[in-house]
Design brief:
It is built from 12 helices and 16 strands. By secondary structure, the chain is an alpha/beta fold.
Length: 491
């Protein structure tokens, strides 16, 4: 069993050395790095043992032990009884024999991503990196490769920042159902073992005070694992999934944030923490909206994380893939509201990325090559947009089809230009941007500026345009599948 004492002492020493202490007051001095606010688009990667059964979702490791669940029935029918073939027995099948980190990084760069966040450890407790804390990791088992380390090297070669995602805290209960009957989870275990601690699952996963509460031993183990990732890979982003908001975790969150921010300061680097559900005090890290977005512009920077597949974050044989055009519209909408998009792919167990994922990524990349100046490094305008289509506010809304029209516009600003982005190409080539009409004294002022010229990005021909009190009228013969970007030169 790994002795955590030395690492815990190091953590306290780094915190004591400042500039950040493990208090909300101290952490409130945090500021979001400019590179992150400029990047706008990143790639999330859910890849692990759960890609081997490729059934249901990335929660297979939990659900296969839940009696009468589809995963439980599938497991018994396909692999046998749980006491004879448990989740750990998928590890030798996770060979990743076609994993090419350079090819991944080149694809993500071609897609226009500026940062990449692989899942370092999912709820199942299998580390996708080399670790001294547990032998249950990809460098020693399964692929026998330091996946996170190799991706870090490849992403940096392709000009992208690397992050890491930890879902470890949910492991407190994630394998707990396996203790309810004769399965391999009931084998004797201690800290460092794969299934440990496999505690009973809370009745409500949103209960901040649910019992049994995570113990000091488990939380210290969680903290050391997170800090090991920071020290070994120096990620620019650390993403946390939900359940870190549990009351027992709060003191350890503050310790981690102080440690991570202090390490970044020591290295002359910068750090970002993504969180959900008010787990961090507002202003001490970057809030994240899972599979959804905000309906209105925000005065603070935020992130959406979503996936190309609607049904699962990891690879399954029946993933339901979203069209690239819908995701591009989401990206535009999110950026116009002061956010960024972290888009997930789920590779196959052999390390290849599905053709469906590739096609979506390449379409996004093609759009960004033409229109990226309206996205990268952009800032919000006085209003995010206009139009009849309303975006549902909040998480888990990405399955709701938005059906944007050519009357829906989003605005960004960059390098002295105003960008008006039509969310759908007009069938007749006619556009009217009402927010940019000429104002008179009787109307509430929206825009009193002078427009000198209008350009359609990706179109060789100049559009016809005029302004009146109804709006800015544009006529263009440009035809495209995604949003149409009008670049406005102002007087």
């Amino acid at each position: 069993m790994y002795d955590m004492t030395k690492y815990l002492n190091t953590i306290e020493d780094v915190i004591a050395g400042g500039p950040y202490q493990d208090t909300w007051e101290s952490l409130s001095r945090y500021t979001v790095p400019e590179w992150y606010k400029n990047a706008k688009f990143g790639i999330f990667i859910h890849w692990g043992i759960y890609s081997v059964p490729a059934f249901g979702s990335e929660w297979y490791s939990r659900n296969m032990y839940v009696k009468d669940s589809p995963e439980y029935k599938h497991h018994v029918e396909t692999y046998g009884r749980h006491k004879d073939f448990g989740y750990k027995d998928f590890i030798p099948m996770f060979t990743a024999d076609k994993f090419d980190p350079d090819a991944w990084a080149e694809l993500f760069a071609e897609a226009g991503a500026r940062y990449v966040v692989p899942v370092a450890e999912h709820h199942d407790g299998f580390q996708m990196y080399e670790s001294e804390i547990s032998h249950w990791n990809a460098a020693e088992m399964g692929p026998k490769r330091d996946v996170l380390g190799q991706l870090e090297e490849s992403c940096k070669k392709n000009g992208m920042e690397i992050g890491a995602s930890s879902h470890r805290v949910e492991h407190w209960f994630f394998m707990g159902h396996g203790r309810e009957y004769d399965s391999d989870v009931r084998e004797p275990m201690e800290r460092g073992d794969f299934y440990w601690p496999a505690m009973p699952e809370p009745e409500s996963l949103q209960d901040l005070y649910s019992e049994p509460m995570p113990t000091e031993e488990f939380l210290q183990d969680w903290l050391v694992r997170c800090c090991e990732i920071v020290d070994k890979y120096r990620p620019k982003i650390v993403y946390f999934d939900w359940w870190i908001q549990h009351s027992a975790v709060r003191p350890y969150l503050r310790k981690f944030a102080a440690y991570y921010y202090n390490r970044a300061a020591q290295w002359g680097s910068e750090a970002v923490i993504n969180y959900k559900h008010d787990a961090f005090l507002f202003g001490t890290a970057v809030p994240d909206v899972e599979r959804g977005q905000f309906a209105d512009i925000k005065p603070y920077f935020w992130q959406t994380d979503t996936a190309i597949a609607l049904n699962s974050w990891g690879y399954t044989e029946h993933n339901d893939f979203r069209p690239a055009e819908d995701i591009i519209c989401d990206l535009v909408d999110i950026v116009s509201k002061n956010g960024c998009l972290l888009l997930n792919v789920g590779p196959k167990p052999d390390g290849t990325i599905t053709q469906e994922d590739k096609a979506v990524l390449l379409k996004i990349g093609a759009w960004l090559k033409t229109n990226g100046e309206a996205i990268y490094g952009s800032r919000v305008w006085r209003r995010y947009g206009e139009g009849p289509t309303q975006v549902v506010d909040g998480q888990f809304s990405d399955s709701i089809k938005k059906n944007f029209t050519s009357r829906d516009f989003r605005f960004t600003t960059a390098d002295g230009y105003l960008y008006a982005i039509a969310m759908k190409c007009s069938g007749d080539g006619e556009y009217c941007i009402r927010s940019l009409g000429i104002q008179d004294a009787s109307r509430q002022a929206n825009f009193h500026g002078i427009i000198r010229d209008v350009e359609v990005l990706g179109c060789g021909e100049k559009p016809q345009w005029s302004r009146d009190q109804e709006g800015l009228h544009i006529r263009s013969g440009f035809v495209g599948d995604g949003p149409v970007v009008f670049k406005l030169e102002l007087e």
